[in-house]
Amino acid sequence: MNDVLSYLDSADILLGTLPSRKQLTGIPEAGASHTVRIRVNRTMPFEFVANLMPPFSGLWGAGVRFDFSDYDAALSGLGEARDADLHIFWMDWRIYSGSMAASDCASWLKERISRLREVTDKPIWVNNWAESGGEGECLYSDRASDRGWFRSLNAALSELAFGEPGIELIDLALLAQEDASSFYDDRNDAIAGYPFSDRTTIRIARHLGVHLLPASRNPRLKAIALDLDDTLYGGVLGEDGAAGVRLTEGHRRLQKSLLRLKQSGIMLTICSRNEAKDVEDLFEARDDFPLRLKDFSVIKADWQPKAGNLNELARQLNIDCSAMLFVDDNSVELLKAAESLPELHLLRASRDDAFETLRKLLHYPGLYQLRRDSEARNRTADIQAGASRERLRRESSDFNSYLAGLKMVVRLHVNEMAHADRLYDLSRKTNQFNLALRRLTQEEARAAFRREEHLTVTVGLRDKLADSGIVGAFVIRLKGEEAQLIETLFSCRALGRDVETLSFAHVLEMLANRGVKRLRIDARTGPRNAPSLEWLGRFADAPGEDCPLPDLRSRVAAACGNHPAQVEVAT
Amino acid sequence: MREEAREQVRAILSEVLETEVPPEENPVRNETPGWDSLTHIELILRLEEQFRIRFSAGEVSDVQSMDDLVRLVEVKS
């Protein structure tokens, strides 16, 4: 319990108002469950940032170990530290602004990245540059000042990061917007060639430690469970009534940010000690609330213990508790939840300052998004349809009648390169139905669609209640008459309808049509992928061994029975 | 005040250099292992935060020893 309290206290300091250097040194050292090895190829010092990162990465259990290149404006030593988990290009772009066009500079960097790509497929981060220039900047057009050069460079770097898989921007231009007046410090620049202020350094360390690093290493969180009273608004619904609770500017902005998180793919839920009817009436009555009742995938408003309700929320969303963040202003509720559900993520809302709650939410590790989520729009509607599916299942006489009643259409896409980002997402996000747990990099996800070496089938699903989007994938490496199923992934939203088995049967048929005789299926036991292993156990005795394709086909076909879904193949 | 300031500066310098500075010593920047430009900035930032003061660019580069820092801290505090 003390550990949880200590964690909550640390999170308050690290994630809220920008902490001072002294506050950072006072944070108790967190035991790291793993260490990320980071190679920094640089033209200016990175040590100031590196020294401040451990408290931030420690918040989600990661240690960091750095390996620095010499200062080298030509970036010539890129072959070193091949075993690093992450490579950073830490560039003082001012060095190049007087001698190269911005577009040439970006092209040169692209060539350097290609060179590094020859030895690593790990993520690569590159910093851009704040556009604001020196004193009296307002007197000069962007053509007459260096500002124009940096603006062009930043556009070219954004394009580079957008087009090349596995490259992310350390967006200094964005960070500068948060605190433009004290972004630079001439004194640091004069003495160490390090242009940034102390506050900027802390800001960069936090951005790397709680945004970019967890986003590069771990699946994004899937859901947020929100308390209501003194969290989403000020006051107590049961005492103040719907008209009496307060929506301060901080609460309004908190709700708007939550709405944006929902639009980005995070599912919102309510976990509140209130009467369900009162909660419905509240959202009905308060049209000034940016959040509406329909924005919540599931609502648990009653007087049951919150830990049980959080577990039930996760069950209804079909996700693991480790993919959910619980936000509550009451430390006791957070402690109780942690006791029952140790994997749950926790954030303490600031009862008297919704802006501080917002700041903490915006820095919570695991919420940062690297790429747009193409399935975000489908997700809440699909989850809400889940309740109707459950009802239909209860009312159906047997499983097959239930499936028939759904009027499902399964659409199989063969080597559809447009689904590369979705495959990457599925590989990183799915836990329960992730058979080989490869956690593909973006590079690997793209490579999986190269026609000559792979058969990669992505699975779309819709039924009469909702379009679930692309919910699954099979990645198969082809080698003559032999093939290897190197990854099998299904979104938890699609489970319970045997779509995975039906799709697999068709994938095996495709392999047979290509002359494949034997299939090896990769599987690895992880902390939460038992459902996928149990599924495989229905057809294959020993994962990892070659299996004659005809035998496998007959077993899978038998398991499918007469599945009533319509199957379409898009080529 | 001087002794108190000296003690705090010594403690911060010890932390930044990651080695205990003996109370009777006055480490000199160019002769002290580890007191390079990077640690110098770190030291300045820590002192500014601790004493809620700000050094000018000239002062930062003019500092040559721990006693120089103590004098500056005394004047500015």
Automatic annotation (TrEMBL), chain A:
Gene3D superfamilies: HAD superfamily/HAD-like (3.40.50.1000), SGNH hydrolase (3.40.50.1110). InterPro entries: FkbH_domain, HAD-like_sf, HAD_sf, HAD_SF_ppase_IIIC, SGNH_hydro_sf. NCBIfam families: FkbH, HAD-SF-IIIC. This is HAD-IIIC family phosphatase. It comes from Cohnella thailandensis. The lineage of its organism: Bacteria, Bacillati, Bacillota, Bacilli, Bacillales.
TrEMBL record, chain B:
Residues 1-77 form the Carrier domain. Pfam families: PP-binding. InterPro entries: ACP-like_sf, PP-bd_ACP. It comes from the Bacteria. Signal peptide: none annotated. This is Acyl carrier protein.
